[in-house]
Write a structure and sequence with these properties.
about 170 residues, mainly alpha, 7 helices, about 0% strand
Length: about 170
């Protein structure tokens, strides 16, 4: 290893391979280069490079998660742009406001994804459909207290998010 730091060695030995692996999946050299760099940033943040028995498997696992995040982000951005396309020009928010909205939507999407399926469904039925807790309980076939607990969990997660965005 010639005195190199383990993370430097990992980078030198596997960066080109990882970039190629990502490029095959994304079919976009710029995105592949960005995600390869982001993968190594994550490795630096985790500081696990010296004990890796299977470095490519480890890098692939991190990179897969980043690819999923990229696709989800693009789905949110696409949905936002489709929504804006239906607004009258006078109501279209500024690019700065749009960027903030997209970041907030991505954070909300991540929080909802972390919830158990039933809690996510109960929360969305309450927030988007305006359903009452008794109706949600009936629809999901669970008790009223279960629905209330699930919605409270979702609200706590959203509340946590509000503090992460506006400390």
């Amino acid at each position: 290893m010639s005195g190199r730091h383990p993370i430097e060695h990992l980078y030198v030995q596997h960066h080109c391979w990882l970039r190629g692996w990502l490029n095959l999946r994304l079919n976009n050299a710029a995105d592949a280069a960005d995600l390869a760099q982001d993968t190594f940033v994550r490795v630096l943040q985790r500081r696990h490079a010296q004990a890796l028995l299977e470095p490519r498997a480890y890098l692939r696992t991190i990179a897969r998660g980043l690819v999923v995040d990229l696709w989800r982000r693009r789905d949110v951005e696409r949905a936002w742009l489709e929504t804006l396309a239906h607004l009258p020009e006078a109501e279209v928010p500024s690019p700065e406001t749009s960027a903030l909205a997209i970041e907030s939507l991505i954070a909300i999407d991540q929080i909802l994804d972390e919830l158990p399926q039933r809690a996510r469904e109960a929360f969305l039925l309450a927030q988007l459909e305006g359903m009452t807790c008794p109706r949600i309980a009936e629809r999901l076939g669970v008790s009223l207290s279960t629905v209330e607990r699930d919605i409270a969990m979702a609200l706590r997660n959203c509340y946590r998010l509000s503090f992460e965005i506006n400390p």
